From TrEMBL:
CDD domains: ABC_HisP_GlnQ (cd03262). Keywords: ATP-binding, Cell membrane, Membrane, Nucleotide-binding, Transport. The keyword tRNA-binding does not apply. Residues 14-258 form the ABC transporter domain. Signal peptide: none annotated. It is a peripheral membrane protein. It is found in: Cell membrane. The keyword Transit peptide does not apply. This is Amino acid ABC transporter ATP-binding protein.
Amino acid sequence: MTTASTLEASPAALEVHDVHKWYGTQRVLDGIDLTVRPGEVTVILGPSGSGKSTLLRVINHLEKPEVGHVSVNGELIGVRRHGRRLKELGERAILAQRSRIGFVFQNFNLFPHLTVLDNVAAAPVATGKLSRPAAQELARELLGRVGLGDKAGAYPRQLSGGQQQRVAIARALALRPGIILFDEPTSALDPELVGEVLAVIKDLATSGTTLVIVTHEIGFAREVADRVVFVDGGRIVEQGPPGQVLDAPRHERTRDFLSKVL
Ligand code: ADP
Ligand code: MG
């Protein structure tokens, strides 16, 4: 989480500029502008099908927008205007960018055939950032941080969903990303396991990691978000501090959504 003065002074960790994305004739993102400052925690809310996952996938270059661009730490990733490609990074540059962005999925996506330790250590080794022993040392440290220091030798199937998601968070941290994206990190979990995962994310939030979190956990958003962004129909309907968007929403669509999830 950040203070007002650091928000003003630092360059953007993430900038999404006028992003449009469509599948066939369906407009899924319809002109998204979003700026995230270093250390800022942004929570994205919105109904199912409103384009939240697509937005995260565009930020992480898993999808290309038809129009608009995304930059991470001031580095432009690809520029397209009205279908005309002005500049585009090559595959290597995209991979380098992606390694600076952590992504935590709804369904954990751990490697089933690798131990917990190797799940966390794999990416720094594969990308040549660390030797295997150094990556394993880092993985042990990160597993300790998410409260799973005793599970290093286990396989994902031996863990609860909450534990698997905490491994996925440790795995995202292993590349020391500048920003971590979470796509509904607790919606596949049994209710009693949600709290342990939110506690880990909250720890990251309070230690200054830049986070963009798609979630329906309104209480959590109120607690950790610097900014809440409400998306509907591929557009940002409103955004602001949690006290404003959650407690005094200006738009009918936001009020309607909140009345359904609260
Ligand atoms: P959310 O995460 O807010 O529920 P999504 O970004 O997953 O929304 O999806 C937004 C819309 O885009 C939905 O109507 C969905 O069906 C559609 N969509 C998402 N991915 C694809 C795809 N790969 N091909 C076609 N349509 C897609
Ligand atoms: Mg989604």
